[in-house]
Design a protein that fits this description.
α2 (64-74) packs parallel to α3 (95-106). It is globular, with a radius of gyration of 18 Å. The chain has eleven helices and ten strands. Helices cover 38% and strands 15% of the residues. It is of the alpha/beta class.
Length: 278
């Protein structure tokens, strides 16, 4: 389910995934978790000008205004760009107002994807506020983060609109294969945050001899190999960077294909090693 047609991608422009909501979402985007101020604006603008069409932000990142500014500065039409933001648990009690606040900060007319940042009390009520925002034309698609098999199975019967996306931590050291398969079997797209291992772990991961060996065979970087591995498993990715060279590199992964043997070698790196708390 939600296999990605990688043959339709070209370096600098990712293919899209058709979500259960009916909208198309690019398979590669820019994560903005650690980006702030003019660095955030410039990184978002550079990403879009270099072919990115998916930008991921969140209320918790305190950079929605800068993301909106970077989108406007890019010169690319709003309707060509897919923007994801998120409600944090401390907003679940007033989710309707929080959605309006996100719209005001982004100032881009509508939100393509609104996610719940974590399971928490009031998450169903907050999701229902997103459902209402979809009816009102403020939001186009809804989804959740950090929902695993038990969480998604408990959640689904309580909501009207099936989440179009689940965003979880996924990288070679934490592959969560059973969860990925379960989510995809429900017709829900899967997206990986921390695809390169996350803060403090990226360098060690990308220097792993297995990844370096595969990368050398294709004249690619280890980061490109990891991102390609995700996509070949049907998992969309949102690597973050403020380095324009890396931003361009992260979306230049459509001119090579990992063999089944190479996919298995990367699968063998799994340690069930989570790098963030949830």
């Amino acid at each position: 389910m939600h296999s990605i047609d990688l043959k339709s991608g070209v370096n600098g422009m990712a293919p899209t995934i058709t979500l259960s909501s009916g909208y198309d979402m690019p398979a590669v985007g820019l994560g903005t978790y650690s980006l702030h101020g003019s660095v955030c604006e410039d990184s978002v603008c550079a990403a879009i000008q270099n072919g990115y069409r998916l930008i991921d932000t969140a209320s918790f990142y305190s950079n929605e205004r800068e993301v909106g500014e970077g989108i406007r500065k890019s010169g690319i039409a709003r309707d060509e760009i897919f923007v994801t933001t998120k409600l944090y648990p401390n907003q679940y009690g007033y989710a309707g107002r929080a959605i309006d606040e996100a719209l005001e900060k982004l100032d881009i007319g509508y939100i393509d994807m609104m996610l719940l940042h974590h399971p928490a009390s009031n998450d169903v009520a907050a999701y229902k506020a997103i459902e209402k925002a979809i009816q009102d034309g403020k939001v186009r698609s809804a989804g959740v983060l950090c929902y695993y098999i038990r969480e998604i199975n408990t959640f689904l019967p309580k909501v009207t609109i099936k989440p179009a996306l689940v965003q979880n931590e996924i990288h070679p050291y934490y592959q969560d294969g059973n969860v990925v398969k379960h989510i995809q079997s429900l017709g829900i797209a899967m997206q990986g945050w921390y695809p390169l291992g996350g803060r403090g772990y990226t360098e060690k991961l990308l220097n792993h001899k297995t990844l370096c060996g595969i990368a050398a065979a294709y004249g690619k970087s280890s980061a490109q190999v990891v991102l390609r591995w995700n996509l070949q498993k049907g998992v969309s990715v949102i690597p973050g960077s403020s380095n324009e060279k890396h931003i361009c590199e992260n979306i230049s992964i459509f001119d090579f294909e990992l063999s089944s043997e190479e996919m298995e070698k990367i699968a063998a790196l799994n340690k069930d090693e989570k790098h963030d708390w949830y």
